[in-house]
Design goal:
two-stranded parallel sheet, globular, single chain, 6% strand, 12 helices, mainly alpha, three-stranded antiparallel sheet
């Protein structure tokens, strides 16, 4: 139907269309019957949110297809088995931007076994790290570039378990104030591991026997965790969801409210991948600041 009165397309649509374009209708969008998804019967729980926004929401429709999410369980299995073909199959063609430090950990292995296939993956990860420029990203990009060139890493190379270090660095400060990294083995110990009264005389780690062997670290405060939640909220394309997440992290109890809302909205997997990758980056940056680079375990 053609309206009786003219409208200003800039005000109504925000654009000046080159072809006839509808600007008003009855019912609600996307469905006049109030259905929230195709099979909504009014009683079932909503399906989980897709791992990535639809290309139409990114103003990339129809030129770009939706990239499938990275299967972290498959990635971990490939890394544990040091299986380069499996690793490359898990990574190529998948959204890796929220797992660059986990993916980066497998690239030296893939280059050693399947260099020709792994080189484009390595270059892509280096570019993504450089563009993102988060904590530890430049360090990993530099290490991967050195690996590509066959050059030694800068600094002392230690096979540190970054996941353990990240978890201990950013654990509950009420339980302990820090821990130690074994610079020979790369193992990470909470400070309670050095106390015979806590873990027993036989199990206690004696750091006084070889002080040069141990790197002491203090637990960090909660500011990194809060900034991480704020960054995750900001990246949400759904304005209502973004506002709810931003409200959740205001004031005391922010971490609990945020965690509950993330699970309620089916975003737990995305949040875990996002936060874990950044925690690994901060752990890598901490080591680099101490002159240590992470080698193969």
């Amino acid at each position: 139907m053609v309206g009786k009165q003219k409208v200003d397309p800039d005000q109504v649509l925000g654009i000046r269309p080159e072809v006839p374009l509808p600007y008003w209708g009855w019912g609600s969008i996307p469905d006049q019957y109030g259905r929230r998804w195709a099979d909504d019967d009014g009683q079932s729980r909503p399906p989980r949110r897709p791992p990535r926004p639809h290309p139409m929401l990114l103003h990339a429709w129809p030129a770009r297809e939706q990239v499938p999410a990275l299967d972290l369980a498959e990635l971990r299995a490939a890394l544990a088995a040091a299986d380069a073909p499996r690793f490359l199959a898990a990574v190529r063609g998948h959204g890796v931007d929220d797992a660059l430090h986990r993916v980066g950990a497998g690239i030296p292995m893939a280059l050693a076994q399947r260099r020709q296939e792994a080189e484009p993956v390595a270059l892509s990860v280096i570019n993504r790290l450089t563009w993102r420029a988060g904590p530890g990203d430049a360090v990993l990009a530099e290490d991967l570039l050195a690996c590509l060139r066959g050059a030694p890493l800068t600094g002392r190379v230690v096979p540190v378990d970054l996941e353990m270090l990240g978890a201990t660095l950013e654990g509950d400060p009420g339980l302990s104030t820090g821990g130690f990294v074994d610079l020979r083995t790369g193992e990470v110990y909470d400070e309670s591991s050095t106390d015979p009264m806590t873990v027993g005389q036989d199990a206690a780690v004696d750091i006084d026997a070889g002080p040069d062997r141990w790197l002491r670290f203090d637990r960090t405060d909660s500011r990194d965790g809060w900034r991480e939640m704020a960054a995750f909220a900001e990246r949400q394309h759904d304005a209502t969801l973004r506002e709810r997440l931003e409200r959740a992290i205001e004031g005391r109890g922010a971490f609990g409210r945020f965690r509950d809302l993330v699970h309620q909205e089916g975003l737990a997997d995305q949040w875990n991948a996002f936060s874990t990758d950044r925690r690994l980056g901060r752990a890598r940056q901490f080591l680099a600041d101490e002159g240590i680079r992470v080698g193969s375990q």
